[in-house]
Amino acid sequence: MWALARNADSVKSLQGDVHFVEFDASSEKSVLDAARKLTTEAGHLTALVNNAGIALSAPLHKTSSEDFARTMAINLTAPFLLCRELTGAMVKAGHGRIVNVASTAAKKGFRYTSAYCASKHGLLGFTRSIALELAAKGVTVNAVCPGWTETDMFTASINRISETTGRTAADARESLVQLNPQRRAVKPEEVAELVFFLCASDAAAAITGADYVIDGGETT
Q1: 116 has catalytic annotation
Q2: 149 neighbors 46 (Cβ within 8 angstroms)
Q3: Residue 112: left (phi > 0), alpha (psi -120 to 50), or beta?
Q4: What is the reported pTM?
Q5: Catalytic position from the list 31, 82, 99, 116
Q6: Where are the beta strands (DSSP E) in 79-146?
Q7: Strands 96-101, 47-50: pairing kind
Q8: pLDDT of the chain along its 220 residues, tens only?
Q9: Architecture of domain 28-147+186-214
């Protein structure tokens, strides 16, 4: 959260109009309180990017109900709540852009990640549905589906594989990188540029209900 605060300060120095609201994506009350605070402080939001997420790894028989519920709450319910609460102003203004950051796990199944895959498949279906609902109202809704990306989640997965298999972190990393035909992890900047295009470019005005896979060819 401190990293987010520092980023907010950095952006504020460039743009001068940043509203930093901390909330717990696993709590409906916290998400709704944040949405109300945003609409009160910032007014009409022109873009919404649902990027928060967690990934838990366990065989089906070891996936607890609590872990499944938490994964769904953060990865699917929070985006649903934010879209529901924040799109009203977009519709009223006749313009808005929504990008839901899903995953290649929204496009295919992966072993030992049933909760994560279920949440991301759900997020993609949700994206397609509300894209149709909002298409004639000036609001576009799209999904971005990255493969393994150089993030804290990637590092955590490497550490988890290393701990459970006894392999070195380097070997664990290589096993994930090999899933990408380009033999590398996706850079966060590459995902960010795609999200920015969908949020800000006039050339994206007719793009809605789409899912952009950015994974080096993994799901081809």
Answers
A1: yes
A2: no
A3: left
A4: 0.91
A5: 116
A6: 96-101, 139-146
A7: parallel
A8: 556 666 666 665 555 566 778 999 999 999 999 999 998 887 778 999 999 999 999 999 999 999 999 999 999 999 999 999 999 999 999 999 999 999 999 999 999 999 999 999 999 999 999 999 999 999 999 999 999 999 988 999 999 899 989 999 999 999 999 999 999 999 999 999 999 999 999 999 999 999 999 999 999 9
A9: 3-Layer(aba) Sandwich (3.40)
